[in-house]
Amino acid sequence: MTDREVRICVVGDELSVGVGDGRALGWTGRVLARTRFDRPAMTFTLAVPGETTSTLGARWEAETEPRFGPEQTHDNRLVVALGRHDVDSGLSVARSRLNLANILDVADNRRLSTFVVGPPPGRPEDGGRIAELSAAFQDVASRRRVPYVDTYTPLAQHEQWLADLATTGSTYPGQAGYGLMAWLVLHTGWHSWLGLPHETE
After folding, report:
1. Which of the four pLDDT bands, split at 50, 70 and 90, describes residue 1?
2. For 9-64, what is the HEC assignment?
3. Which of 13, 77, 91, 184 pairs as cysteine with 51 (C-beta 3.0–4.6 A)?
4. Does 124 have pLDDT greater than 50?
């Protein structure tokens, strides 16, 4: 970690702000609550309900730009929180791949360190398509050496996750589900990405 002020922008759909969480924390709030920065950090969660990777790609630069500080004095970082709306909207996996690749390439050109969180399980009938989408996103991130958190594979058959969705009666998890997502983020390179020591359980 440098002496520069850390500013993190999280861009994604409504899952990134914890819709359905009775504590209103979502996975982002839980992750940040477990992250100890050397000095106060600024975090901005910029969510758009129903967002696909196409609409995300079209807006993220304009929304993050005024929130980041000068590179000389600020450690600007981007978290791309990918949802499941590409499946709902019928976007092809190839198009989704290209959209994420473009976001990561632009971020790299802007010298933004980027971290990607993939889509979690939703409706059972969408499982195969979300799994394919997550694998494609992971491949795109891996090729660019960008950290990627696969939330689909560990949660697809996870009892607590499935129980949470059943309880909420929607595709949004509750407190337990967001807690599981936060755990996956915290244990899949989050602290390393920030240059911070890992917090012990």
Report:
1. very low
2. EEEECHHHHCCCCCCCCHHHHHHHHCCCCCCCCEEEEEECCCCCHHHHHHHHHHHH
3. 13
4. yes
